[in-house]
Each structure stands twice: as structure tokens, then as C-alpha cells.
Amino acid sequence: MNECLSPVNQLAVTRTVLANERTLLAYFRISLGSFLGGAGLIKFFEHPAYVVAGAVLLISSAIWIIVGTHKYRLNKKLISDIDPEDWLEVEGMIKKE
Question: How many angstroms separate the first and last alpha carbons of the chain?
């Protein structure tokens, strides 16, 4: 795919892929924080309100992983569907200006 693209557009595609991966890691970081917060509330506090809040955080950590992975896969498919001819057409329009 990248053999016919100019170096500028190759870098643009690479930046887009790396941004998608960075976003996935951010979702994992949020999930880990929610998990640790929930586990800490459950482990160190015995009040029922803290236990409920901890359980909510544990459940939300699983939801964050599912949502993040789903968005990553959707964006990865969109990125892989980029047609090199589209990039070449954009290059031609830029060079005309």
C-alpha cells in the first residue's frame, strides 16, 4: 500500500495508526485505574457504600476494555481501507495549487 505514496502521506498514515494504538492504550490505562480503585475500595473499606462503589468501578473497568477494543478495531479497519489512489489524488490536487 505505501510503495506508491509520497513520504509525507506515508508518515500521515503511520501517525494515524500510532494515534489509534495510543488511544487503545489510554482506554487500558483508564480500565486499570478503575480496576485498582474498585479493588482498593472493596479491600480496605468495609462500609457497604464503598463496597458498592468498588463493584461499580470493577464493572466499569471491564466496560472500558470492551469499548476501547471495539473502537480500536473499528478504526483499524477504517485505516486499512484507505485507498492509495485517494492519497495520490489528494497529492495531485495539492501540487496543482
Answer: 26
